[in-house]
Amino acid sequence: MTQLSVKDLAIGYDRHVLTDGISFQIESGDYVCMIGENGTGKSTLMKTLLGLQPALKGNIEWGEGVTPQTIGYLPQQTEVQKDFPATVFEIVLSGCQNRLKHRFFYSKADKATASDQIERLEITDLTQKCYRELSGGQQQRVLLARALCASKKMIFLDEPVTGLDPGAVDQMYSIINKLNHDGMTIMMISHDVDISVQYASHILNLGSNVQFKDIKSYKSNQNTESGGTR
Amino acid sequence: MINELMMYFEMPFVRFALIVGVLISLCSSLLGVILVLKRFSFIGDGLSHVAFGAMAVAAVFNLVSDMIVVLPVTLITAVLLLRTGKNTKIKGDAAIAMLSVGALAFGYLLMNLFSTSANVSGDVCSSLFGSTLILTLTPVKVWLCVILSIVVMGCFILLYNKIFAVTFDESFAQAVGTKVDFYNLMIAVLIAIIIVLAMNLVGSLLISALIIFPALSAMRIFKSFQGVIIGSAVFSVICAVLGMVTSILFGTPVGSTIVAVDFAGFLIFAFIGFVKAG
Ligand SMILES: Nc1ncnc2c1ncn2[C@@H]1O[C@H](COP(=O)(O)OP(=O)(O)O)[C@@H](O)[C@H]1O
Ligand SMILES: [Mg+2]
User: Fold this and answer.
1) CA of A43 to the centre of ligand 2 (A)
2) Average model confidence (pLDDT) for chain A?
3) CATH class for domain B2-277?
């Protein structure tokens, strides 16, 4: 089932186009890796899909009960967050904010959801710890747990492993892989092409010519290309 | 000394001053945490100077209640500052610094040129640093302060969860459909209200201290957001009461005494935090 369909999209700021001609479709259960040089607009594309940034051209269609508000988003970390005084539980619970609607305070069910996601990411022992005292890998898992509170179907991850040490990187990738096996649709921005090829079902290459390929044809294409230059 | 204090507490204007002091310190400490975390504390500083300028204008026109001018001007400036802060094309901090000193100079100039009062430098001094003696507030001002404080605290408590979400991560909040612009606007409006109120207590130069010290102190010790908010509120109220009582007993200027107590409190909290961290 198609969850997201993008046609001839152009992204950028103030009419300055970063990349255009972006078209792709994401089906339920896909694992899409977005690759491309720094500054090609990977983060911007994610923000545009989420409605944080207007599209300059083209259209974005959501399907199967997915809307931007029900996507779990893991943004690139900001400076403000690094020394923020809040407990892990407070932060994960804030992932339930889209359920508040006309309520002011979180319900028991919201709190249970937060606890469940904390357990799912195996950070239960950190629940009452202060966010700023965690390691980079632990912080990312907290933010992932928060994203999971907001979404049951699809998550967007913006460079989830950048700045982590190698052990934490492997752990993060295996967590994401497990989520995907449990049926979560994943769209991830990544620098590491090798890892992307290993886990992903599709590759979205934002570059001078935008490509969207399933993993098989991406690999065979890579092989013929590198075979040609050899 | 206790007797002397009791005698003072009998007086209505002393009681008014205490009520106002507690409310203002409570409100400013709540919003202070948000401003410090959002790296917005300089906005508080700029706004307080603009409020001083507006007060000078009100004084020149001999308005009965200067709030009529000061509150709207400060509110509008707060909203504008928030806009420029977001706009990366204009250097936000430079714009605010310019506005801030401009308003200060303009206000002083106006008061000097047009003031009908015999003691201009006394007036200027008390609007910059707060009144020298314990405040003489009219009942109208006290009521206005009580109502506005309740509004500020009510908004803060009811919208606590959204305010937390927007402060911790604007992008995520916006992505899941929280109206980030609305909450930022609300924070700006609340901070403008607090600054106008606090001007009566500590004067416009010292307001920043009332906003920043409690937040920074609480952050040294508490590890949860809720802890920081509550800690900051308690810290601020205790310092304000201690400061006011000291000022009554020893006849020191109210504003600077409160700020001095806040500073001492900060040093204590910083020390405790340092010891706890080992
Ligand atoms: N808010 C903004 N306003 C204007 N330009 C921006 C803004 N954010 C990012 N850019 C520019 O857009 C380009 C792409 O940014 P980004 O999407 O973060 O790239 P990537 O994530 O692929 O590294 C960069 O050159 C950056 O300078
Ligand atoms: Mg990026």
Assistant:
1) 4
2) 88
3) mainly alpha
